[in-house]
Amino acid sequence: MPDVRSAIAARPLVLDGGLGTMLEARGHDLSGVLWSAGVLIDAPGDVRDVHAAFVDAGADIVTTASYQLGYDNLAEAGKDAAEVDALLGASVRLAREATDGRAWVAASVGPFGAVRADGSEYTGAYGMSVGELAEWHRRRLHVLSEAGPDLLAVETIASPAEAEAVAIALEGVGIPAWVSLSGSSTAFADDGALAAALVTAASPAEVVAVGANCCPPRDIARVLTAMPSATPAVVYPNSGEAWDAISRSWHGDATATFADVDAWLDAGARLIGGCCRTTPKDIAGLARRLKD
Fold first, then answer.
1. 237 vs 83, 92, 105, 207, 219, CA distance in Å?
2. Distance CA 226, CA 4 (A)
3. What is the DSSP letter of 148?
4. pLDDT averaged over the chain?
5. Residue 285: is it exposed, middle or buried by C-beta count within 10 angstroms (0-12/13-18/19+)?
6. What SS3 state is found at 93?
7. Nearest-CA neighbor of 236 among 285, 267, 278, 193?
8. Could you report the per-residue pLDDT of 48-83, keeping only the tens digit for each?
9. pLDDT at residue 98 above 80?
10. How do the domains of the chain map onto residue ranges?
């Protein structure tokens, strides 16, 4: 595969869709605190197969099943730090096997709220300092980068403080990364806070794109308007349904996820895909539009 920075400059790239959605479709219960990390532990072959399905659908980049892998939540599940390191590495290896040289592998790095599994990735209300968050993110970033992905996908970052922490933790990591804010986080309700966080997220030399994910498709235009100039944008919204963190279930109707993709491209989007509740069928339709 060519260098991912050069590829982003050459053409828009297609991301994958909802890994957890497709694992649920295979019969896995993701309602526990480990979410798809539990499947990585118990049924790694299914994780590999879902990655492959998205590549077959036309995804240029697949993201690993490491979003919710953290040292604290896995310690509660009886896993020590060495076992967590091994699982982080396994997530990259499985994705690499599934792509078989046909797509880039992005190692997924979820927010602090992901390991809490309490919906706080939509508020950023962690009660932690920037320094504490940077330290929390740093180890996973370095373990994942050492596992050999093509880039890091730092996803669903939920507050200006966490965006600053991630920017600190990414310095010197040694491989390209994108940073995607939680598009539905109440911490970014103010346009100024959103724009400032995008600038902060784009500041490390390692960052090749910034943007937003895990939000309704209608919210993407606002994010693109707030982007720092000359910075490629990464956008991957949900299907349009809403997540209820209390019942741990989705409600509402899916919308035409990529109906506005032409406008997103015009506004500078270079990495486009789907987040929760999007499927290989959705990605196949997106890939046809972008590649034709």
1. 32, 23, 19, 20, 8
2. 24
3. -
4. 93
5. middle
6. helix
7. 278
8. 999 999 999 999 999 999 999 999 989 988 899 999
9. yes
10. 4-291
What's the Cα-to-Cα distance from 141 to each of 167, 168, 264, 282, 291, rounded to whole Å?
11, 11, 29, 29, 31
pLDDT, residue 216, reads: 93
Question: What are the tens digits of pLDDT across the range 169-214?
Answer: 999 999 999 999 999 999 999 999 999 999 999 999 999 999 999 9
> What are the phi and psi torsion angles at 199 (to 5°)?
-60, -45
pLDDT at 248: 66
Count of Cβ atoms closer than 10 Å to residue 84 Cβ: 23
The CATH superfamily assigned to 4-291 is Homocysteine-binding-like domain (3.20.20.330)
Q: State the burial class of residue 11 (Cβ atoms within 10 Å of its Cβ: 0-12, 13-18, 19+).
A: exposed
Rounded average pLDDT over 267-277: 96
Query: Tokens 């720092």 label which residue?
Result: 228
Contact yes or no for 147/88 (Cβ under 8 A): yes
Q: Strands, DSSP E only, in the chain?
A: 13-14, 61-63, 104-109, 151-157, 177-182, 207-213, 233-236, 242-244, 249-251, 269-272
